[in-house]
Amino acid sequence: MTAHAPKLLKEIELFSELNDQDIKEVAGLAQIKKIETDTTIFHEGDDADAVFVVVEGRVKLVTTSTDGKEFILSVLGAGQVFGEMGLLETAPRSASVVTITEVELLVIKRSDFDHLLTSSPGISRKLMAILSRRLRRANSKMESLAYMDVAGRLARYLLDMALDHGNRLGNGWVVVRRPTHSDIAHSIGTSRETVSRLINEFEEGFGLVNKGKFTYIRENLLE
Ligand code: CMP
User: CA-CA-CA-CA torsion for 154, 158, 161, 166, nearest 10 degrees?
Assistant: First the structure.
């Protein structure tokens, strides 16, 4: 990694509790990798040999049902970790990971990650907090799939997207790069046409404005 690596690593939640010595060790083990848009980093079912942290850009986590239908579990952005489940459980990858923008990643090999987990308790603690938050989010998604209609699911999806990936502009609005309508449809279990229709309807009554690839949402809706 480069000379500014320690600063960059400190800003990543997984490494935020580490002392300078441990950060140096992580910097020595992690490789930086740049990947183009629309590239599969690994496939569901592959053997797991590394863990990844997104430094810049966004990826989607996709599972495919036996009849070929795609479901997007989540979209991850800067600072978020993926690929840890395959290492912690010694199991095949539970989902495919595909870039939706150009992406810069930190890659840590399985044996190095195992070593860090035992030598730096701060990493294990943070990882448990991250997994716990992810379970909370998955529970909430399960609840919305079970009980909400499509409009409710879409509203919750857009608000979560703004909370997780949005930039607060300081003028009462949050801006977020909107996934394609097809990706949104695959995240909330509906069709692309329904997403397009509802997003237009929301624009009229929900405090939401679409401009090109970006959606602006009123900040007070996130509270
Ligand atoms: P792994 O199973 O190695 O490969 C796919 C990765 O997707 C998995 O590790 C997790 O890092 C990530 N992942 C799986 N399910 C979810 C989820 N519901 N929310 C966020 N990330 C997930």
Answer: 170
Does residue 137 sit in helix, strand or coil? helix
CB atoms within 10 A of CB 176: 20
| Ligand 1 pocket, Cβ-based, cut-off 6 angstroms | 48, 61, 73-74, 82-86, 93-95, 134, 138
CB atoms within 10 A of CB 45: 11
Q: For residue 87, give the ligand 1 atom closest to its CA.
A: 3
Place of tokens 């595909």: 98
What does the alpha-carbon distance between residue 206 and residue 223 come to, in Å, rounded to a whole number? 14
Give me the pLDDT at residue 108, please. 95
The model's pLDDT over 90-127, given as tens digits with 9 standing for 90+, comes to 999 999 999 999 999 999 999 999 999 998 888 999 99
Looking at this protein, which amino acid is placed at residue 195?
A: V
Q: Which of 74, 85, 133 to mutate to test the pocket of ligand 1 (most atoms within 8 A of CB)?
A: 85
CA-nearest residue for atom 16, ligand 1, is: 73
Residue nearest to atom 20 of ligand 1 (CA): 74
Cα separation, 221 vs 223, whole angstroms: 6
Q: What is the CA radius of gyration of the chain?
A: 18
User: In the beta sheet, which residues pair with residue 61?
Assistant: 74, 97
Residue type for position 128: M
